[in-house]
Amino acid sequence: MIIGGAPRIATADEPATLAATQGVGITGKVVPPVSAADQMWHADGAILVRTVLPHLNVPPDFLKMTSDARREWYGNWEKTSDEGRRHVAQLAFLRANRHRYVRLEKDVPFASTDLPAGDYLLRALFFPRVNGEIDYNHEIATAGYEFKITAAQASTPLKPVELGKLQPRALETFNADQPAPDIAFEAADGSAMMLSQFRGKVVLLDFWGVWCPVCQHDLPNLIALYGAFKSNPHFAMVSLDVGDERPIWQSFVDQHDMGWTQCFLGARDKAWQARAFAVQGYPSYWVIGPDGQVLGEGFQCPQLRPIIEKALGGMK
């Protein structure tokens, strides 16, 4: 299955506009995870760009501002700062590429076109085939396949890049080793807090919504993960609701066993915190280390448990 392309994103030393340069085509095959290898499977893949997270140098009185004032500050930052304009360009590129999907089949090459130079992740959801039909109700596994397009490769669009066989890897390490943007948010009790207030802890940050069926599907896993680590003083979990009306969000939280920090961000076009993290889909989980660095990112929380365990194991 061949998917069309999108324009190239401006790099850090370019104007914060999208360049119209065409990229190069790619082709390759995937090696399924062990859990899917011995089954008949179908997989849906999405090609994602490695995100460059911005640095937010918020004013000292940020928490004293109203939520509207903080949102206005962020909007001005995007418009007036060089880094903000580059981030806006990146968001536009990610939006243009959000439907760059590929269908993955056993022993069948996949292909995509017009990929500019950059670092990519092909994320795949594996589903079983039963009597020739795809069973979307029972996911077998998820996997990620990293690849890179060099500037030299992108400059020769008539010669597709052969990726060969891609080996599965852990999703949670993608977008790691970057400082997390220091966002502000309001807890269910109305108190305002900054992400930096959790320094010294391993934080699982969860962007989600009641409207999101995948979020609700993964909620039992999220509750189980919280149960496993809630007694550890070095662990914290923060859920940030995006896109719901407050009564719907509050009712859902009250009806479920969601005893960790719950925050309401409001409508998607007002959730600047999700823009700061360049959230491309929901749920979006981020593991933040005690020093404020991103340790990993993913869209299913069970995959994040090993990295949380490793981070907590190094703390005393």
Describe it for me?
With 316 residues, the chain is α/β, with parallel strands linked by helices. The chain has 2 domains: 2-51 and 95-169, Sandwich (Immunoglobulin-like), CATH 2.60.40.10; 174-313, Glutaredoxin. Helix content is 25%, strand content 30%. The protein has helices at 34-37, 67-80, 82-96, 151-154, 213-229, 246-255, 272-276, 305-313; strands at residues 2-3, 24-30, 41-49, 101-105, 110-115, 118-130, 133-134, 141-149, 161-166, 184-186, 192-194, 202-208, 235-242, 261-266, 284-288, 294-298. Strands 3, 4, 6, 7 and 8 form a 5-stranded antiparallel sheet that branches. A hairpin with a 5-residue loop joins strand 15 and strand 16. The longest helix is centred in the C-terminal third of the chain and has 17 residues, at 213-229. The radius of gyration is 20 Å and the shape is globular. The model is unreliable at 1-21 (pLDDT under 50).
Number of strands: 16
The 3D shape can be described as globular
Task: Give the full name of the CATH homologous superfamily of the largest domain.
Answer: Glutaredoxin
What structural category do the secondary elements indicate? alpha/beta
Give the DSSP E fraction (strand runs of 2 or more residues).
25-35%
Structure at a glance:
The chain is α/β, with parallel strands linked by helices and 316 residues long. Helix content is 25%, strand content 30%.
